[in-house]
Write a structure and sequence with these properties.
The structure holds two protein chains of two kinds.
Chain A lengths: L4 H8 L2 E8 L12 E6 L4 H4 L1 H8 L11 E4 L2 E2 L6 H8 L7 E6 L14 H20 L2 H5 L2 H12 L3 H11 L14 E5 L23 H8 L9 E6 L6 E7 L1
Parallel strand pairs in A: 1-5, 6-8
Antiparallel strand pairs in A: 1-2, 3-4, 3-5, 7-8
Chain B lengths: L1 H8 L30 E3 L11 E8 L10 E5 L4 H11 L9 E4 L11 H8 L4 E7 L6
Parallel strand pairs in B: 2-5
Antiparallel strand pairs in B: 1-3, 2-3, 4-5
Classes of the chains: A alpha/beta, B alpha+beta.
Chain lengths: ~250, ~140
């Protein structure tokens, strides 16, 4: 784990330069300037955009404001997907900054979950962590932790505190010496070429004859329709807590 | 007819009318081959598994949440957790504003847009996915 510290830091501190523009049909009392922000790849839109919200609400009347939501080129952005995943899936081939449109009306019920408070984001995040640990350790590690440890994981993410986060997360990344890895690898594969939300299946890190599985083995097994490896690229999006999320994109 | 009522229950939210919940649905009286449009049907002899469209779900109540008369259901893989929540709420005659939480492994609450098929693949055992449901947050 210590060898990977540089990689972990690079992933954690990844940023996407973003330009937020208010939707043209929103009613404003004066012109709304765009708002620029560096978004953390590992976080969630509704967790890091308080300043964006305040900026635009300053030029709007209270009665014209309801729940904020974000859209990129007509696609509502799911706040419960990590920011880096959203960008890589939808906008990675476009020039920077990432241009996101901000809405305060007409919430798209069919496309987005509501996010009435930070508690909802925390609950979603912790559920992901628990689901990942169910796969890695049959939930033993996460269940043995105290409530304050869970809280520390969340606060680490919320406050962008790498050390605070990994002090707890490292325990979720350990496995007994006699094993060669987790029980199952927690992963999700997102593809731009399909309507399916993502691929998630059981996959052991070690084969029956003791060979360590590679990423290529995983892809061959769960995503056989993918074209030859040299024709696709993928990004491993942060083992946030260990839902290893990576997605494929076809060149 | 019970089947038709089950079908209308399972239309996507945008088109679903306020449907009647079947008064009595039980495995014993269910027909052998439910219509393919019914995304949720009582668990019967319909084969479930990898290549089949439906998976078996066993619903267990937590705390003082009302217990469903029919606990075992065959559900289409692409049905979401939100769809299942809506279905259980209608079946238990809960009002729309009442919350319902669903848990896997008595440990995590999957996202409302998660598909039951994926959960079955990863967390099913003995040919079924056990889900606990509760009107309050049971496992945080």
């Amino acid at each position: 784990m210590t060898d990977d510290k540089d990689v972990l830091r690079d992933v954690w501190f990844g940023r996407i330069p973003t330009c937020f523009t208010l939707y043209q049909d929103e009613i404003t009392e004066r012109e709304a300037e765009p708002y620029y922000l560096l978004l953390p790849r590992v976080s969630y839109l509704t967790l890091v955009t308080d300043k964006v919200k305040k900026h635009f609400q300053k030029v709007m009347r209270q009665e014209d404001i309801s729940e904020i939501w974000f859209e990129y080129e007509g696609t509502p952005l799911k706040w419960h997907y990590p920011i880096g995943l959203l960008f890589d899936l939808l906008a990675s081939s476009s020039a920077l900054p990432w241009n996101i449109t901000v809405h305060f009306k007409s919430f798209p019920e069919k496309d987005l979950l509501h996010c009435p408070s930070k508690d909802v984001i925390e609950a979603h995040f912790m559920s992901c962590v628990k689901e990942a640990d169910a796969l890695k350790h049959k939930s033993q590690v996460i269940n043995e932790m105290q409530k304050k440890d869970h809280k520390q994981l969340w606060m680490g993410l919320q406050n962008d505190r790498f050390d605070q986060f990994w002090a707890i997360n490292r325990k979720l990344m350990e496995y007994p010496a006699e094993e060669n890895g987790f029980r199952y690898i927690p992963f999700r594969i997102y593809q731009t070429t399909t309507e399916r939300p993502f691929i998630q299946k059981l996959f052991r890190p070690v084969s029956t004859d003791g060979q360590l599985h590679t990423l290529g083995d995983l892809l061959k097994e769960v995503c056989p329709s993918a074209v030859a490896p040299e024709e696709m690229w993928f990004t491993w999006v942060m083992p946030k807590s260990d839902v290893l999320m990576f997605y494929l994109s076809y060149c | 007819m019970a089947e038709e009522q089950e079908s209308t229950l399972l239309l996507p939210p945008s088109t679903a009318p306020e449907a009647e919940v079947p008064a009595e649905v039980s495995p014993e009286t269910a027909t052998p081959e439910p219509p393919s449009s019914a995304a949720v049907s009582p668990g019967t002899e319909e084969p479930v598994g990898d290549t089949k469209k439906k998976i078996d779900i066993l619903l267990k109540a937590v705390g003082d949440t009302p217990i469903m008369k029919t606990k075992k259901w065959a559900v289409e893989r692409t049905r979401t957790i939100q769809g299942l929540i809506d279905f259980i709420k209608k079946f238990l005659k809960l009002v729309a504003s009442e919350q319902l939480f669903i848990y896997v492994n008595q440990s995590f609450a999957p996202s409302p847009d998660q598909e039951v098929g994926t959960l079955y693949e990863c967390f099913g055992s003995d040919g079924k996915l056990v889900l606990h449901y509760c009107k309050s947050q049971a496992w945080g």
